[in-house]
Amino acid sequence: xxxxxxxxxLGIIVVASPAAFVAVLGLTSLIGRPLRESAIESWTYxxxxxxxxxxxxxxxxxxxxxxxxVPIELGxxxxxxxxxxHHNFHFHLKFVFDRLSVPFVILSFLLCGTVGAFTSRYLxxxxxxxxxxxxxxxFTLGMIVTSLAGTIExxxxxWELVGLSSALLVAYFHxxxxxxxxxxxxxxxxxxxxxxxxxxxVALHHLTGEGDFDVLIGSGSWPEGQASLTANQxxxxxxxxxxxxxxxxxxxxxxxxLPRAMEGPTPSSAIFYGALSVHLGAFxxxxxxxxxxxxxxxxxxxxxxxxxxxxxxxxxxxVQTDIKSALAFASLTQVGIIVVEIGLGLRYIALIHIIGHxxxxxxxxxxxxxxxxxxxxxxxxIGEHMQHEAGLWQRVMPVGLRSWFYCFAIERGxxxxxxxxxxxxxxxxxLLFCDSIERRWTDFLSGGASRExxxxxxxxxxxxxxxx
Amino acid sequence: MVPSTAPETVxxxxxxxxxxxxxxxxxxxxxxxxxxxxxxxxNTLHAFxxxxxxxxxxxxxxxxxxxxxxxxxxxxxxxxRGRILQRDxxxxxxxxxxxxxxxxxxxxxxxxxxxxxxxxxxxxxGPTAELRWVVAETESLRTxxxxxxxxxRDLAITDTRHWIMRDLRNGRTPNPIDERxxxxxxxLFATFDRQHIEKWDDDTWEMFTLHLLWLxxxxxxxxxxxxxxxxxxxxxxRELLMDATGQDSDxxxxxxxxxxxxxxxxxxxxHWSMPNLEDGFYRTFLSLYDQPFRPVDRWARGLSQELxxxxxxxxxxxxxxxxSLDLLGVSELERQGYIAATLLALRGYGGMIWQLETRGDRVxxxxxxxxxxxFLAIRLMLDRVALQYVARESLAFREPLNKLRQxxxxxxxxxxxxxxxxxxxxxxxxxQLIGWNPKYLHRLSNxxxxxxxxxxxxxxxxxxxxxxxLAFERRYRIQTLDAVAVHSLTQRVSNTDGPSRAHRVRVPTxxxxxxxxxxxxxxxxxxxxxEPQCETLGAAGxxxxxxxxxxxxxxxxxxxxxxxxxxxxxxxxxxVYSFKKAEDQRRSRRRAIGTVTRHVHxxxxxxxxxxxxxxxxxLASLPLVTRILFPRATARLRQxxxxxxxxxxxxxxxxxxAESEPGPEPGHVGYNVDEMAAIxxxxxxxxxxxxxxxxxxxxxxxxxxxxxxxxxxAHDCGACSGGRGGPNARAFAQMANDPRVRDLVRxxxxxxxxxxxxxxxxxxxxxDSVAYYDLDRLPTTHESDFERASAAIDEARxxxxxxxxxxxxxxxxxxxxxxxxxxxxxxxxDLSQVRPEYGHATNALCFVxxxxxxxxxxxxxxxxxxxxEPDQDDEESTxxxxxxxxxxxxxxxxxxxxxxxxxxxxxxxxxxxxxxxITSLLGVMNxxxxxxxxxxxxxxxxxxxPVRLLFVIETTHDAMLQIMQQNEGLANLIRGRWVQLATLxxxxxxxxxxxxxxFVRYRPSTNELPVAASSIDWYRGxxxxxGFAQIQHAxxxx
Lengths: 468, 1038
Known about the structure:
The structure holds two protein chains of two kinds. Chain A contains 19 helices and two strands. Chain A is mainly alpha-helical.
């Protein structure tokens, strides 16, 4: 067996193990023979361990053979030939193992596996146990596919899986209103990011004729690629990708959704918003980093957004009074810094930063319910109540300015309010206006009230069990 | 901190004194749970404690919108599983109906039978639209309900067939009353194939019968003309607006207010504290949200002007409330209700503010008085802004707010509370189940229909649930009292020495005193099984030592006594002198590590600190993975490392005071000898441990430690107000060992033999470990006694862990006792474990009396056990009175909190733990932002069985009546049926049950009880509820 076959086999195992997990969970539910808790637990372990071992094996073989770029081709799935050759389209299923994707895959398997083990006890006897694991398996598959994607279409596929499972898990407790609303909000922001991503992908196709990263960002293994675009093309595509990354990683001005995403069970908050999902935007920027180099303005935009995010989040986290929001903004601070690092071209540092930060934050979020216990232990060790000494801001800043900043922070930078007021609201008004025109038109046509749905009462009647 | 409103609220002169009074009254409806770090169990419905239990739960349901009992379906499951028997329901129903049960209701039979039939099977109902769908689309008009007895069904079909074929098929109308049915039939025949009626098969006839039945029921209900009670309309504008538009104005208000409240109440979590905090809630809010250059949300556009106006015109909180109420058009009469409803809309925070304001001694940052008033002022002001916005946006309503409610009630018509379809569907179902045929029903007169519908409506779901609940309690009560009756008689026969400890000849090998906590029941039982020569006793777990305590490694004094007592004494723990130096080193190491940890902890959330932490964050993957995959091993390893910072094991208590006045200052810490003697005598006399003292008496406090559990303190000792009772046990033992104390106690007629040694211990109910205090002071002569006792205790805790494991689904049923101990140890250390232990879940009983009549009875960890010797009490029952004064309120509080959190886990409890988020170091909220959630989480109560606590007190019923007469508080709880009460006569073992204000002799329904050789033989292989049994190994100390 030569090295190539080994790589190919292992590579397929890495992708297939989470895919098999999705299939098993999904199919058994579909045919109405759902798995029991213990079976789901075993499958979680099995798929993670197999995938992790295969990924580690690939890492070692790559290190031993000094091969830095291992593409796994699974063929063209869609090919459309058009008269003009550069308008051809092919959907090429291709995965790439290189110095960016291998650490990311290993990290994903490690964290997903740990959180999977955690969840099996945390959600024990919960009615939504299987629902959680279905979303979880989709998420794992999405992470692996995104990390290994060799073409922009494959990356988009994984990216969508991650987005879908995230939004569904935010709305996990669908019997309450707040999780559903916040899940919808996350979903809406993700849509914006996805739209930007999709436009970028289409633009790249137009510019280069295909979606393979090899071609897009030039040959040569990551991070030494050379993009084959002009500076202006790079700026255009890069800005779209930046919007996509900003939506996914909750960078300014989309930051408002991150604390709202803490509605799901603690482990899903940990894995998604502490660890993996929130870094996905940064990963995308890393993947296309050769494009960033093409344009100074693009790099500048990346650095600026990163700085703004880091500054905003580090101010905001200081006034948070609940542990999960505090950790969410703390995460965001680091994501901002990571984006700055990427903008400055410090790719290895950014990668190390992502990995370290993901591990640390997962641990912190998973033990967030221990906060009181930990505080008690710390107070005893130090021998006094934990008081935050009056920092620089309290000593130096005048009260008026301090109040302003405090209000800015507690209102989370007014970001959500501004988005709602200046984007969502006008948008909604336009749609409502169109709706009223349509209503007038249909009323006119039917010669009376034309919408039966208007008659339905807004509120349901109370059912007997609750009536007193 | 001086509240800014002080000048305006001088007593009597304030123009708003009545308003203030209304707010204080409404405040009593708020949840009374304090900070979660010291969890005190209390009756969730404390506000209605002056009502009877049955009235209070209904009142609670009206006020809080929470369930009064379990849903009917759950009781029916219990019926199916034999936890309720049919005869319980019948007995309860007869009791409940008193003399009305036999009243004949025309052809319906007696009221008793009608209600029984209504209880027998689920009666489905729903919103009118849903019922119409059910009727049109489901099988309900095609086949009889499957619960229908086949004879009923067959009779109904044949009868109808006969009737139709004979009287109605052709044009003849034998009597005028059938004229009406003809119209109905004409419609019906249109859908059925009338031509071939003779060829219809059975299914068609069944379908036809049901269709006819349904139409007849509808027709009858239409004719019945029963008044419907008008539904209560909510006072708040928000509910009306919701009904009209589907938009929730509270959503806007809460979004802002929750964040502000959390920041205002914060006990030190946030790095930046709120500026101008000392101005009080109201002024701080006014100044904070009145910032320049602040883009505001659309709904809050009017807010800045409003804030500006309030500041400029210097309107105080009470003035502002009065103004808001006027602007909202709330009349004087409605004020009480409106204020209460407004406060309850964000009851978690409202309650916490009220707690921090009135019981500020329990937190680091208490609130100044009248914060709740200021909170209400801000809330009403925000309500106004939000209401105006919603009304304007969705209704284009631009008039003043005081017209809004009128506008809305015109817009939303009062919908019929119970529709014809809903009523008819109930009759329709009952007709099938009981066997009322369409022929009879349609011949009923209008008046008879009226009786029928009102009788059915007089027994709604709420009443049915109440009956079921009483039946459920009755079954368990009968089982318990039967078991007590049988077992106490058996014990009386086998105990030839007589029932009293005083007559006992042989001295037990050792004695163990545990807390009355029902979790110690299994521990005590296993101890008695393993070592039949020992004796166990129970007393409230603070062991009469009410103190503020500070351990050697603790930063602060914490109170360790029931919450009703405010301790006067302080006790500290010190490292013994020879270890002082080592301890100083370790203390500074602890300090250093603590400081570093703290900086890592908070620094990891900052800009640069976070960067450093994150770059080295990969190191965190190691603890992350190991702690989750191997919790127990990791904990062991951690303890190894902790060795070099831990306080040396050799410490002593500063128990004796030099100065005259107690206090926290040096020299004032501790007790004087007289006080110690009083404590020792008190406890020994309470338990009746005045003779037959063993050579070794272990006093065992308890607590619980678990990981990743915000509700950790709720598992600690209830008698130590959510603290850990080890230090109390230790202090008591030290006092009782003091020769000077013994001299004083002897002078009072209570000789403690010189060879008796007391030893303090601490039982961790989560990992079932037991630690002993001051072993180095144990006389060498007693070492063998200790070894024997500790061997027995080790075995007992293993077995107790094993018994606990039967309730944990993740523990296999075939575990050995050693494996079970390892399992519970793992649980306590597991970050992912949301059920480290089940706490007080399943508590249902409280026995006060001698252990003899409960020893050897398998109580399934459901009984609080308090030792008491009736023989040693005086005529006035002084000892019993003081015991009950503590035991009844504390145990009832625990029991009722579990009851309510189980019956409505989301309304009264705090829901599932999974999305909980600790906020302000005070409590938990759901997810990203929600109200504070008081109450118990579902994972703590899920195996609970909601029954009111049944006290079995060993005394005469006359003595008990006398105690009730003299203690209003106790009498209220008992007469209000918040607890159930029975007495066990010390002489004759007769049982009297307290019902309707008097004691009634209870006659056991059986004289047999299952017998098992040991506890494990009884519970082995079973996860669910278990009944009583006699355990042979444990039955006697002889």
